[in-house]
Amino acid sequence: MTEKQKILYKAIDEILWKDWDPIGLNDIEEVRDEYQGYTPHIFSLTIQGADKVKIAKHLYEIETVNMGMTGNKIHCEQIAEKILKQIE
Asked: Which of 33, 40, 51, 52 is the most interior residue, by most CB within 10 Å?
């Protein structure tokens, strides 16, 4: 992984924790690793050139399928936009 990719990976991890946070845990530092299992795939999608729709769809799928929550498509799109801004 290049230095630029390492920075992107860390940025995605931070966005998932601070901004996406579908469970509402980001004020509990003891569970900081809660979303880190999703970071590698989101990172992979991002460096492979996935667009906002594809990233948002994956985030929404995590919320609804993996977590069994209602999900928020609009919020997932906002998070996808924020992730993609990291590569500009």
From this structure: 52
